[in-house]
Every structure is written in structure tokens, then in C-alpha cells.
Amino acid sequence: xxIASRRALLxxxxxxxIAACAPKAGGAYQAFFLKDSAVLTPxxxxxxxxxxxxxxxxxxxSIAIDGFAGVSGPKDANQKLSAERAEAVVVxxxxxGVSPTLIHRVEAHGEAGALANVAVGExxxxxxxxx
Length: 131
What we know:
It contains 3 helices and 4 strands. By secondary structure, it is of the alpha+beta class. Helix 2 crosses helix 3. The longest helix is centred in the middle third of the chain and has 21 residues, at 75-95. The radius of gyration is 19 Å and the shape is globular. The two termini are 35 Å apart.
């Protein structure tokens, strides 16, 4: 290997080492809910189970939970519903063996964050895993 190539490789090693240690975002999961409900459907329960399995199997460093509700109805009711949905997902993650210490952020966003042109998208909880 020519000396210039070795120097370039050696110069790149610290950058690669830092990149390897940086937190990485894992799967983003979305658990959807029925209108005016904070009860996990069988499909959303499976989504949470998949997220829990990924977090446990791949050594997650933290998990963030964001709950959302629709725009119809009073804002305070939507805020409360989004919080209840987020909490339902937290409980399910813990039932699936995720340590409570991994869940670093749980937020309820109420009406904010609706997905454009997706009616059910308003009624969801997002699970973000960081490694």
C-alpha cells in the first residue's frame, strides 16, 4: 500500500471511531388507535411488541414516546387522550420487558403533529429508539 494511502487511512480512523460511538436512531414505530380510544388494538400491540424486541435485542440506549390525538373536539380532551395513549404504550413496552430506565421521554402533543392526508395518523403514538 502506498504511503499516501496509509496516511489517508490513518487520518480517517479517528473519524470512524467517533462515528461508531455516536448515538444512532433505530426504528421509528407508530402505534395507531381507534377514535377517542387509548386502548391498544391487536395491530398496535404487535407494533409495540416489535419495538420492544428491537430495543432489547439491539441494546437500545433510550426510547422516546410521543402521543398524538385528533383535531376534532376540545383541545384539553385531545391533550389528555394523547397522554393516555402514550402511557398505554409505555405500559405495554414494560410488559414486554423493556426497562423503565430506557424510557427517557414521554410527551403528549394533543392535536399537534397530525399526519397530512392520513385521517388515522392523528391517533397515534410514535416510538423512537436510540442506540
